[in-house]
Design goal:
Layout (H helix, E strand, L loop, with lengths): L13 E6 L7 H5 L4 E6 L4 E5 L17 E6 L17 H11 L8 H38 L3 H4 L19 H8 L1 H22 L14 H4 L38 H33 L3 H27 L13 H23 L13 H29 L11 H29 L17 H43 L11 H14 L5 H26 L3 H4 L6 H32 L1 H14 L15 H19 L2 E7 L1 H12 L2 H4 L2 E6 L3 H8 L1 H4 L1 H10 L3 E4 L62 H13 L18
Helix pairs in contact: 2-3, 2-12, 3-5, 3-6, 3-8, 3-9, 3-11, 3-12, 5-10, 6-8, 8-9, 8-10, 9-10, 11-12, 11-15, 12-13, 12-15, 12-17, 13-14, 13-15, 13-17, 17-18, 19-20
Length: 814
């Protein structure tokens, strides 16, 4: 729209809806006033205004030349509850859920897209089995089987006396000890189910204001797997007039995208059943192995039937996980009740039968050696490696159909992150098992010749710990390269920094080498964000190779590294040192997780820091793992959409939604959800935004260049502010000539404004007598350009007559 034809500025109401970024913010800080009032919302997320602005719509003349400021605070959705910091222990689940959303965009490859989603869900399922198997290893193998079966171990622990084989009591039989100890992993699975069910009711059940009615058609017609292609590059295409080119909309604009009630319920049932079946298999499997060598035909038959039922249960879990993905084309409120209720119930029945079977009297049964945890962990690790490699193949096939130079790791970001999730799961579970084994064995070393009272945890865990020092040594090389590159980049940037500030602008003061070096170093460090994918790729690749080596070493030798290299010259002390250091690092890592969780529970500042991790990692819905931390966007995006719809309908005014950092991602997602009529009355102002720099590169199917271009076409106008010193935000890289006529921007160049100067001035000036700080990612609203761009956006919007008269019901709100 040219300046000559631009709609004149109107005296109608104008609203600026502010959305804060990561780490949280108070309404007082956002609005710059200690006196605020909550307009709508609850203690977790709400809209606030200054007390003086509470009834601004009733006095439009007072706000003729300025917008009504309004702040949406959502920090309590992630970092407000101290107990939620303990979700940090479930970090692998959150990471694998991110891998689900990192698939490359593709055109017309619906089956491959479905296959990609099913593979990620299988990796997520393996993590649940791994966590439960680790709990079984600690409770059943180390405590109930090994320590309680050894007089040397149980004799030093009075609390194990009633289970000790040397005491000869009712609980001394191995099967009964295992049945009793199974309460620990079963309780863990129950706790995960409870947390997922509680958060499912609070997050996944928030209905969006737009979209079709609840789905009631055939399942196959209603399913859209993982944002599968229904238009160009897998994005939904909005209906448009025949004369217009239809804009490409992101899948985030689909009615059911932020309503994952059905999928999470189904996955929760499957993962709960998988955990229960893992516990049942550990208990019943030990008893069945004994009965196969015994003479009791009845118990042998019962064992075979029970193991067959467990295999059938596992097959049912796999079918439920692989059968169906997300439903996004409509708000789907249905539940698969047969799976949601029947699967966990059947698993509980099998667990009860397993406990009864194992508790049957077997007087001649004595525990020796270890339970077959080695085989269990080996199968899990091999399955995870095979799934990640297959996932990489699927991602490569998707990426080659729609290549883009800025896509992370050439479309392999999802498999790389899935590998990291498996590595984190292995480190955490292995750390628990090894620390418990060391605690039980006292001064001895489990697994070494004559040094321990118990055999110890599976050999594979020791091999995995031994490769950690090697992995750190491998990572040291790219880390040093990045340090050197950053230092050289800072030196190269120094002349450019001085040229930008001393380009004829009067009053910048004298050149200062220290000041120049500080600004250049800040820019160089901010650029490290763009090379982070390299480190992720190196870590994932090295983890895959070293993990394969650990499996091979444990498989071939059957012994811990310190023994397998015995009499091997320097290899033996090196292996022992690697095992000791790796075991210490694994234990330290687990203790660090627990310590951070406890500190976050007591310390508000630490809770806020950890909350930043959730702000970034839990933006996406739980599409792969139901036990991951809940998705706050499934509450925040409907909140913002409802607010924009109701306010514009009630007042007919203009609205600019202003998002900083992660708030800009929420703002864009909410704008995609708006009806077309409402979207034309809304402008978007982003600053310090990771929309393209992080989300566009890591999640190309949802925030790729075509999706961002489609968003710019649908909005009346969108402006983005950024700095070269910002390590998170960046430009959108949407060229103005790509935007068709009528997009609404006067300046036919870019969505991005030229990079803001940071600091605002180089030295001391008349207006800035004291040195200005280098702000980086913060302080955008203090820049003079912010107010200028906001005013320009509001000036382009034309208010309309309210669609509903005063006093009508409709969807209006305060």
């Amino acid at each position: 729209m040219s300046p000559a034809t631009r709609a004149p500025r109107s005296g109608g109401p104008a609203l600026e809806l502010l959305v804060h970024g990561v780490g949280g913010a108070t309404p007082q800080d956002m609005l710059g006033d200690p006196r605020t009032v909550r307009m709508t919302g609850d203690e977790k997320a709400a809209v606030y205004r200054r007390t003086d602005d509470a009834r601004a719509e009733s006095d439009p003349d007072a706000y003729r030349d300025r917008p009504i400021p309004e702040a949406y605070c959502w920090s309590n959705l992630t970092s407000g509850n101290g107990a939620r910091a303990l979700w940090l222990l479930l970090l692998p689940f959150m990471v694998v859920n991110l891998a689900h959303w990192m698939r490359p965009r593709a055109a017309g490859m619906r089956r491959t897209t479905r296959f990609y989603g099913a593979l990620v869900r299988l990796v997520a399922l393996s993590l649940t089995v791994l966590l439960t198997a680790a709990a079984c290893e600690v409770a059943l193998d180390l405590l109930a089987w090994q320590c309680a079966g050894s007089a040397a171990c149980s004799g030093e622990r009075s609390w194990l006396g009633f289970m000790s084989a040397a005491q000869g009591g009712w609980w001394s039989q191995p099967g009964r000890r295992l049945a009793l100890a199974s309460a620990v992993p079963a309780a863990l699975v129950g706790l995960l189910w409870y947390l997922s069910n509680r958060t499912w009711s609070a997050y996944e059940a928030q209905r969006p204001p737009t979209g079709e009615a609840d789905g009631d058609g055939d399942d196959d017609e209603d399913e859209v797997e993982d944002g599968a292609a229904v238009g160009d590059d897998g994005d939904a295409v909005q209906a448009a007039a025949p004369a217009e080119a239809p804009p490409v909309r992101s899948a985030l604009g689909r009615p059911g995208f932020w309503y994952g009630r059905r999928l999470v319920a189904r996955l929760r049932a499957a993962h709960t059943a998988a955990g229960i079946l893992t516990v049942a298999a550990a208990v019943a499997g030990a008893a069945a192995r004994h009965d196969r060598a015994a003479q009791d035909a009845l118990l042998k038959t019962c064992g075979v039937l029970l193991e067959g039922a467990l295999v059938a249960g596992a097959a049912a879990v796999l079918w439920v996980v692989c059968h169906r993905g997300r439903s996004e084309r409509r708000v789907d409120a249905r539940l698969d009740r047969a799976a949601v209720r029947g699967l966990p119930g059947a698993a509980l029945v099998l667990l009860a039968l397993s406990l009864l079977y194992a508790s049957w009297s077997r007087p001649g049964w004595a525990s020796s050696a270890t339970l077959p945890g080695e085989v269990t962990f080996r199968v899990i690790v091999l399955a995870q490696g095979g799934l990640v490699v297959t996932l990489a193949l699927a991602a490569w096939l998707l990426h080659r159909r729609a290549r883009h130079p800025r896509t992370v790791l050439y479309g392999l970001a999802g498999p790389a992150v899935a590998m990291l999730a498996c590595a984190l799961g292995g480190v955490m579970t292995g750390g628990v098992a090894q620390r418990v084994a060391d605690w039980i064995d006292g001064p001895g070393t489990p697994g070494m010749d004559g040094e321990g009272a118990i055999p110890g945890p599976p050999v594979l865990l020791s091999w995995q710990a031994s490769v950690i020092p090697v992995l750190l040594a491998v990572l040291l090389v790219p880390a040093l390269v990045l340090v050197a590159r950053t230092w050289l980049a800072a030196r190269r940037l120094a002349p450019r920094v001085e040229a930008e500030y001393f380009d004829g602008t009067p009053g910048e003061g004298r050149r200062d080498a220290v000041r120049t070096r500080r600004i250049a170093s800040t820019r160089a460090r901010a650029a490290l964000t763009d090379v982070a994918p390299l480190m992720v790729g190196v870590v994932s690749g090295a983890t895959l190779l070293l993990g394969a080596g650990a499996v091979g070493g444990s498989w071939l030798t059957g012994e811990v590294p310190g023994r397998s290299f015995a009499d091997g010259g320097l290899a033996e002390p090196a292996a022992r040192a690697a095992q000791a250091m790796g075991s210490w690092l694994v234990g330290f890592g687990f203790v660090l997780f627990v310590t951070m969780g406890r500190r976050a529970y007591r310390d508000a500042s630490a809770r806020r820091t950890i909350g930043i991790l959730w702000d970034v990692g839990t933006f996406w819905p739980r599409a792969a793992h139901p036990f991951a931390p809940p998705c706050y966007a499934e509450r925040a995006v409907p909140d913002l959409t409802w607010r924009m719809c109701t306010w514009t309908e009630r007042t007919g005014g203009r609205l600019v939604i202003s998002g900083h950092s992660q708030g800009s991602v929420l703002a864009a997602a909410a704008v995609w959800q708006l009806p077309t009529a409402t979207r034309r009355r809304v402008a978007l102002l982003t600053y310090g935004s990771p929309l393209e720099r992080l989300y566009g590169r890591w999640f190309p199917a949802y925030f790729g260049p075509k999706a961002l271009l489609g968003l710019s076409r649908e909005l009346d106008c969108w402006r983005n502010l950024w700095r070269r010193t910002d390590p998170i935000g960046g430009p959108m890289l949407i060229a103005g000539e790509q935007i068709h006529a009528g997009a609404g921007c006067d300046d036919p160049t870019d969505v991005d404004r030229d990079a803001l100067k940071d600091p605002v001035v180089y030295g001391r000036t008349q207006r800035h007598p004291l040195p200005e700080p280098i702000l980086g990612h913060s302080g955008y609203q203090a820049d003079p350009m912010f107010a200028e761009e906001r005013a320009a956006l509001l000036d382009r919007l034309t208010p309309t007559v309210p669609r509903q008269a005063q006093g009508s019901s409709g969807r209006s709100s305060a």
